Amino acid sequence: MIRNERFKFVRSVRQRFALTLILVFASRSCAENWPEFRGPTGQGTSAAIGLPVTWDATRGVAWRIAIEGRGWSSPVLHEGRIYLSTAVPTANADEQSLQAVCIDAANGTKVWQREIFRQPMTADASIHTKNSFASPTPLVRGQRLYVHFGPNGTAALDIDGNLIWANRDIRYDARHGGGGSPIASGELLVFNCDGVEQPFVVALSLDSGEERWRTYRPDMEPERFSFSTPLEIEVRGKRQIVGPGSRYVCSYDPASGSELWRVGYPRKWSVIPRPVYAHGLVFVCTGYEGPAELLAIWPDGKGDVTETHVAWRTDKHVPHTPSPLIVGNQLFMITDNGIATCRDVMTGDLRWRKRLRGAYSASPIYADGRIYFPNEEGLCSVVAASDEFEQLAENDVGEPTLASYAVDDGALLIRTAEHLFRIDSRPQTAP
User: Fold this and answer.
1) CB–CB of 276/324 below 8 Å?
2) Number of helices and strands in the chain (H, E)
3) DSSP per residue over 11-40, as a string?
4) Rounded to whole angstroms, how far apart are CA atoms 179 and 181?
5) By the 8 A CB rule, do 263 and 306 touch?
6) Spatial distance between the Cα atoms of 227 and 194, rounded to a whole number of angstroms
7) Do 35 and 78 meet the contact criterion of CB atoms below 8 Å apart?
């Protein structure tokens, strides 16, 4: 009986998935916003067509603009404006100015730049060498911009940069600095606070910034810290928020924060990739130590479903940092040391494996039949989204990047260590 019900569930999910694809591709001529980490679906896919395949530091560059300070938040796009965050050293060497920046997507000019917080550089403010004080990606909801700096504060601005509210009460020891980005769920802003002690998930009011609920993770042994971004999914007509952390991935009721189900993965911590969801399965990467695992989980259980709801798993070529990507029946991944793979979504069967050049932190994106894999040195491998490996191009902007790409109409938005680039499919020469 349970098996038959699950088959019905999978069939209904696939039917809804197919309908969604029809609707998306029927409207793909319309420009889409890219409002949060990993885009409009939160899973790195875009309906855009005509994106560039080849470029370099000058060829294909519509514009580039220098970004003051240091930050690895990915750019987001809303109604022709690009938003990102940055941390700028002040005249006082013991402080960082945590700022939000708005850029015109058409011409690359700065619209505004605002300081949100001043962060003292105390002894406990250390971060990982690959991290920054502005790594979480902003989020646009309606006419508001939400910027998040991990344990250093969260704020809401209007789209002209005016502060609406600020909250610096959500404190925790992030060990290596903030990493996970916030999501919007109904009228709530939700993010993981997986610190060294007592990790939790929290929801703030989008309207006021006041805390609405806080749910602590299950009891666990050290290490407890992680850096993942949650994903809201819909299962049997009901929403749930899947939030990976150390030792466990838990699902929460968006309205109350109550835990719905959990799956454990002992001895795994420092989880970074964002989950993906397709064909009735949610896919979660575990963390350190040793090889990471990918778990394909049925999200329709209650309580601890570790032994009953893992459909398949693998510890072969699973990333610690970049998020996975699903296109149709294919699941694509890139490991931190550059091994790209394609697997069958439902079975986990390996379709192909190929080593790409460089080390990887940014998450791949999909658009128009192609996967974009950007490495840490600014080189992007463009690969066909196919059951057979086909590399279409290698493109180098000549500057390091750990931020994931964003997509605009016919263009890629690429944040590097020093600049934001607009790489356009139409012939361009860098200004």
Assistant:
1) yes
2) 1, 34
3) HHHHHHHHHHHHHHHHTTTS---B-STTTT
4) 7
5) yes
6) 7
7) yes
- Domain 31-424 indexed as CATH 1.10.8.60: no
Would you write out the chain's pLDDT as a tens digit for each of its 431 residues? Answer: 444 556 455 555 455 544 444 444 443 445 689 999 999 999 999 999 999 999 999 999 999 999 999 999 999 999 999 999 999 999 887 899 999 999 999 999 999 999 999 998 765 567 888 889 999 999 999 999 999 999 999 999 999 999 999 999 999 999 889 999 999 999 999 999 999 999 999 999 999 999 999 999 999 999 999 999 999 999 999 999 999 999 999 999 999 999 999 999 999 999 999 999 999 999 999 999 899 999 999 999 999 999 999 999 999 999 999 999 999 999 999 999 999 999 999 999 999 999 999 999 999 999 999 999 999 999 999 999 999 999 999 999 999 999 999 999 999 999 999 999 999 987 554 45
User: Which residues contact residue 56 at a Cβ distance below 8 angstroms, ignoring those fewer than 6 apart?
Assistant: 395, 396, 397, 398
Q: For residue 56, what are its two tokens? A: 């370099």
Buried b / exposed e along 315-344 (16+ C-beta atoms within 10 A): eebbbbbbbbbbbeebbbbbbbebbbbbbe
